[in-house]
């Protein structure tokens, strides 16, 4: 049997809020997809770590940056930056923060089931 599903992130099933941002979520089949908005000043280790309870983000992110810039540092010290038009793969074990004074808006298609949830 074939499946076709569509849900709008304009009417999310769930919104998770955290300091300096939020993520709107929909679930399609077994996949949770979301649109995250990170305000200037957001940093995972400051704003989401207290919720997650882990030393670094343990979610796998596969996404696309719509606006703004985000810098990521992996637990091994590797760093990279992503901006508008960039598709990203960020493996578990990282910190991230917003670069500059523009909000970063990102679509994420993996790793959101438990993101920013205790």
UniProtKB/TrEMBL annotation:
InterPro entries: Cupin_2, RmlC-like_jellyroll, RmlC_Cupin_sf
CDD domains the record matches: cupin_DUF861
UniProt domain Cupin type-2: residue ranges: 61-108
SUPFAM superfamilies: RmlC-like cupins (SSF51182)
Name of one Pfam family that matches: Cupin_2
Record's protein name: Cupin domain-containing protein
Gene source species: Saccharothrix mutabilis subsp. mutabilis
